[in-house]
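FORM 7B: Structural annotation worksheet

SECTION A. Query
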Amino acid sequence: MLDAIHHVALICTDYDRSRRFYVELLGLDLICEVFREERQSWKADLRIGSAQLELFSFPAPAPRRSYPEATGLRHLAFAVGNLDLVVARLEAAGVAVEPIRIDPYTDRRFTFFSDPDGLPLELYEAQ
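SECTION B. Predicted structure
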């Protein structure tokens, strides 16, 4: 019935800061970017593998509670081939990254960090 995840949509508080974070730091490819005048809102479509991340801005988005964990999206996980390399890049850019852990069920390494708005993101070493 369902084939794949097509996209995940995020709303940010500072479009330029979040665009730089996802495109320049995390390396997602910019597919399309538009300013929607009627909503005073930027929208960027970013490619990650076969899926997309939609990045939206709005004039005054309501804050969303992440901690303590709340109902809804818990976190967004990115598969990486070399966890140490990505962690080093993030830390060099001043991004706080949690200590690397090992998933007790898969024996894969993973860690968490946050985007500029505090959205919890995971790096999962898939290989």
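SECTION C. Observations
Strands lie at 7-12, 29-36, 41-48, 51-57, 76-80, 101-102, 109-114, 120-125. The chain has a mean pLDDT of 93.

SECTION D. Sign-off
Analyst initials: ____
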